[in-house]
Structures are given as structure tokens and as C-alpha cells.
Amino acid sequence: MDTNASGVGVLTQLMDAAALRHRVIAQNVANVNTPGYRRREVTFEADLAKALTADGGTAHVKPRVVIADGPERVDGNTVDIDREMGDLSKNALLYQAAAQIVTSRIASMRAAIAGR
To answer: Cα dihedral sign for 99, 101, 107, 109?
Structure first.
């Protein structure tokens, strides 16, 4: 079955990136009071958009964890807990939306296979 025809392949990549982003945000929150800790973030969507417009396929696009720039506190830490909580909420909504779309598309494929 060609999962890319229905976009399921891209959606699962997006869900994988969101799961990684959740772990990275949790790591940032856990280190909010660690002196010298540098905030990390996941980059993925821009690379995915480039791959989708280039028509070269998206299988090679992987999420990357990078050290983010940002204002530094006196102790050298760059984590802003309010930003992390906002990013966590946004990421959870992205994951849930992608999961619902995947579920819907798989249900449609099952119905088509069953002849309904």
C-alpha cells in the first residue's frame, strides 16, 4: 500500500517529530534551574516544507535537535518556563491533529478495501 498517496507517510513523520519535540521540551523544563544549561529545540517543519516543494520525497527529512539562541539569565541558563509551557501546548495540539488525520485516512482506506 502506498501510504504517501494519502499523506499518511508525511503525517507519521510529523508525529515522530512532535514526539521528539515533547521529549526535548520536557528536558528543557527539567533543567530550568540548571546553571549554564542551554535550551534545545527541534527543527523539522522548515526542512519538510522544502522537501515537499522540491518533489524529491520526504523520506530523507529527519527532525534535528539544536541548541537554541535566546536571552541568557545571570546563571547562564536560557530556558524560559513560560515559553516551554506554550511550546508544549502547541506541540500537543499538533500531535493530536496529525493523529486524528491519520486515523481518519486509515479508516477511509479500510472502508475502501471492505467495499463500503
So the answer is: negative
